[in-house]
Amino acid sequence: MSAVTDERAAEPAFEVDLGGGGRPSRRRLPAFAWWMVLPAALILFAITLYPLIYSLRISFFRYDLTAGVEPVFIGFENYRRLLFDDARFWGSLWRTLYLVVAGIGIQLVLGTFLASLLARLQRYRALITALVLVPVMMAPVVVAVQGMVVYNAQYGPLNYLLNRMGLPGLVWLGDRSIALQTILLTDVWQWTPFVAIILAAGMSSLPADLYEAAEVDGANRWQMFRRITLPLLQPLIIVVVLLRLMDIFKMFDYVYVLTRGGPGSATETLSYYNYLQGLQFFSFGYAAAMSFVQIIILSVVAALLVRRIRGGFA
Amino acid sequence: MTTMTDVATAHERALVRRRRVEQARGVGRTLLLAAALVFFLAPVLWIAMTAFKTQREVFSFPPVFIPETIDLRHFRATLSGTGGRALRDSMIVATSATGLSLLVGVPAAYAISRFRIGGAHLPLWILSIRMFPPVVAAIPLFLLYRQIGLLDSYLGLTLAYLTFNVPFVVWMMKGFFDDLPRELEDAALVDGANRWQAFVRIALPLAVPGLVSTALLCFIFAWNEFLMALFLTRSNVITLPVALSSLVGGSQILWGQIGALAIVAIIPVVLIAILLQRYVVRGLTLGAVKG
Asked: Which residues of A touch B176 (CB under 8 A)?
């Protein structure tokens, strides 16, 4: 178990477990064990590993369905074009990274705040948690469809609200300079409760005596938050960051429904551009190369985070 | 000079002031929480209201909050057409994806939990598959399916959903099996049961709560999935997210019906969320938070 323990403080009741630890058994494994994993292993091989290997292979080919010719081996040409010749790819990469960083930042701040409200609830906590959980459980496509209604520049309730407050309405989806922020807002709306609920679960399991001791020592609220809550929640925060990173990095559904990457390419994310290259332009070799570049970027970032979790927080 | 009574009253006053501050803070927190609830629920209510509006009510400004007539005509209209088919297809695909992933995932999870197959790294490796952007798997699957005729089929989409649901099941159920005491199974083995019987008769029944919550989360993941469905289906299989996305992309957009279909898509997941609150946190954090 890689449960995070802190010698100086009582151990929080939540547990951050990302595998690892656990001694591999020296005994010979019974055949039973192998039979039990065999179906899952076969299926995972067939539907994940094989496609991945296949994808890696075609990333070295020119494989355009529209051209109607057999795949041609072109070595690293797809990767070269992608990395050195494709401004649209870089645009979508920066946009995605912006969404990741801004999204995680905003959701952590708002989520921590909301979590501190939830964690203090004595009555109706289960009910309110369930209500707040509604956005999280909804299909992203449904959230986006709802967004089309809410963000509508002419008839939408959001602009109506702004007008009532004496502010001009915005063209939420049709304005180059706003559309990406609208996508960000959509993600913040759907996932801030997720962050909040997890952090609230962590907060209410923190030992109360620490806070009492701090109060006796004359610490104010901010100091308690900064010196007790945050350090103890750090493992949990890193898990949340990791999960949000993976999710935002592959953002596709909102973009597809709300803007189709537009106006122009103002909201094109990596996954969306990858989809365009694959399923709209039928450049499979090129799309496969793009997939691999995505995997590499994601793996590096995730590995750094996981290492931090495993390495402790001293 | 300060007397004892002065000290006492000063102390009392401080206490009263503190209680007042506490009360004010309490009210402030309640207000903030109420504001948060409005922020997170108002859009959902809005789309729900849309399901009852006439086209004229949708296109009016200032917006209509409460539609004039509340009836189910949009629900009937959409469910008797595309929406009904989409509901059926989503049910079929989500149910079979859930069933299949449990069928192969649970035994694997048990073996990994009890025998540590693959050592420490296998579970994490399995988990990382789940983290991949779906577009990465969707493109090769599309090409593969095109060759073997699985495009636009229930089986094809169901199998594609195993890419994220099997790792999820293995990971979650390994966690639940790890939590179970091994002594009962050991006792059964001593009493002459074989490994399979120990698994089916002892461990599995004890893991039912975990099993149910894992299954329901699998169902939701498949129910909500969009990208794979977009890549791998056309006209034979149309899931709810695909149907919704094409309805809002059409030329004549029937907002009432779209609202109705959105509600149809939301209801099951919300019910599950309410039923499973505790396990949802564990599931959504992939077991990292054991709630």
From this structure: none
pLDDT digits (tens, 9 = 90+) for A90-146: 999 999 999 999 999 999 999 999 999 999 888 888 889 889 999 999 999 999 999
* Residue B238 belongs to some domain of the structure: yes
φ, ψ of residue A187 in degrees (nearest 5): -65, -40
Do both B189 and B274 map to the same domain?
yes
Residue with tokens 């009493």: B191
Q: Domain of B32?
A: 4-50
Residue A17: the pLDDT is: 52
pLDDT average, residue stretch B269-280 = 82
A25: left (phi over 0), alpha (psi -120 to 50) or beta: beta
Please calculate the CA angle B278-B286-B104 and round it to the nearest 5 degrees.
105
CA torsion B108-B109-B111-B115 (nearest 10°) is 140
Question: Which domains are delineated in chain A?
Answer: 50-85+283-314 (no CATH), 99-279 (1.10.3720.10)
Please check whether residues B20 and B164 belong to one and the same domain: no
Interface pTM, i.e. ipTM: 0.90
Tokens of residue A116, six digits: 């501190």
Q: Say yes or no for a CB contact (<8 Å) between B117 and A160.
A: no
- Cα distance between residue B144 and residue B149, in whole Å: 8
Distance to chain B for A22, nearest Cα, Å: 6
Q: Provide the CA B262 distance to its chain's centre, in angstroms.
A: 16
Q: Indicate which of B113, B115, B278 best probes the interface with A, i.e. most A CBs within 10 Å of its own CB.
A: B115
Tell me which chain A residues have a C-beta less than 8 angstroms from the C-beta of B239: none
